[in-house]
Design goal:
Blueprint: H1 7-15, H2 19-31, H3 36-44, H4 47-50, E1 54-59, H5 66-79, E2 84-89, H6 101-106, E3 116-121, H7 129-143, E4 148-153, H8 158-164, E5 169-174, H9 181-186, H10 189-192, E6 195-198, H11 206-219, E7 232-234, H12 243-260, H13 262-287, H14 294-306, H15 311-320
Parallel strand pairs: 1-4, 1-5, 2-3, 2-4, 5-6, 6-7
Helix pairs in contact: 1-2, 2-7, 5-12, 14-15
The structure holds guanosine-5'-diphosphate and magnesium ion.
The site of guanosine-5'-diphosphate has 14 residues, from α5.
Length: 322
């Protein structure tokens, strides 16, 4: 970081509303900068300000309309006067940008709005990956004054679940003919959502998809007396319909979570995951085992594949070999 860009100054400027300072700080997080412990200590002192944030995760298969819906949500939150940050994360890609370009174009309508911050983020080869970087970025954005942080996942797979875990409210988005019941069950999305949205409600089959989804959700454990009944909403992000209702349902979920202590529990869980991820990374680094060193690992993997050794012996060899 060049002179004049000391972390405390960047944080001050970011809190003053300087979008470039916010961007610089998010880059530190994305890059796994050695300045992160300093940043984290500063942000801890601002946690009282960060507490009221609402972190909303949006997840679902590519093409269902997450980015379009995110953009519509931004518009809705902005008209209510909230400051909104969007973090689009792609767990499958080591590069930011690229595939996200289309999203950025779609978000262009918000580009000149100082109350909106939009950033695509990739893991860039850092040890803990996005599972670790996302909560840090979210805490940063909450601490510098954003009221709502929308986290959109771009890739598919298990890491999507990790990213969803970073949110206070998880919205699972499906589209008619794409996320039909069985597919939804297969993808494991029935476990992770707090709210379900059938987007592209302007298309045929949206009612059917919503009905099917409700049925699937009813098969799961029933909410207790103080439980949250997971709603299935319909939106047309393209036409802007149903988006206000989604914002209202999100506020309801946030209130419910606050009232019942679910929010505290979830955030504590999130903090625990983060501590474990950082501790694990430290252990690995301190061991000098260099688990990220490709060639030795490749060699051992080939031996496991051929049966020359087994995974347990290979793991011991990798640790012994430093
Ligand atoms: N008909 C219709 N198309 C939509 C709607 N929302 C998004 N789309 C279109 O669906 C495609 C994928 O949308 P996108 O937001 O990129 O999906 P993502 O991959 O989930 O982020 C784009 O061509 C959108 O214009 C909707 O509500 N109705
Ligand atoms: Mg998208």
């Amino acid at each position: 970081v060049p002179a004049g860009d000391a972390v405390p100054e960047l944080v001050d400027r970011a809190r003053g509303g300087d979008p470039r300072a916010v961007a610089r700080l998010v880059t530190l997080v994305e890059d796994g900068s050695p300045q992160l412990p300093e940043l984290a200590a500063l942000l801890a002192g601002l946690s009282a300000d960060a507490e009221r944030v609402h972190v909303v995760g949006l997840t679902g298969a590519p093409g269902v309309g997450k980015s379009t819906l995110t953009s519509a949500l931004v518009g809705c939150y902005r008209s209510a006067g909230s400051r909104v940050a969007v973090v689009a994360v792609d767990p499958s890609s080591p590069f930011s940008g690229g595939a996200l370009l289309g999203d950025r174009v779609r978000m262009q309508q918000h580009a000149t709005d100082g109350g909106v911050f939009i950033r695509s983020m990739a893991a860039r080869g850092r040890l803990g990956g996005l599972a670790e970087a996302t909560p840090q970025a979210v805490r940063l954005l909450a601490s510098v004054g954003f009221d709502v942080v929308l986290v959109e996942t771009v890739g598919v797979g298990q890491s999507e679940v990790d990213v969803a875990a970073a949110a206070d409210s998880v919205v699972v988005v499906v589209a008619p003919g794409m996320g039909d019941g069985v597919q939804a069950a297969k993808a494991g999305i029935l476990e992770i959502g707090d709210l379900y949205v059938v987007n592209k409600a302007d298309r045929d089959g949206a009612d059917m998809a919503a009905r099917e989804l409700r049925q699937m959700l009813r098969l799961g454990p029933a909410p207790g007396p103080d439980g949250w009944e997971r709603p299935v909403l319909r939106t047309s992000a393209a036409e802007g319909t149903g988006v206000g209702e989604l914002v209202a349902a999100l506020a309801e979920h946030r209130d419910w979570a606050d009232r019942t202590g679910a929010l505290t529990t979830r955030r504590r869980r999130r903090a625990a995951d983060e501590v474990v991820a950082l501790a694990t990374a430290r252990l690995v680094a301190a061991s000098g085992a260099g688990l990220d060193r490709g060639s030795r690992l490749e060699e051992l993997a080939e031996q496991v594949r051929t049966g020359a050794t087994d995974a347990y012996r290979a793991a011991a060899a990798l640790l012994a070999d430093r």
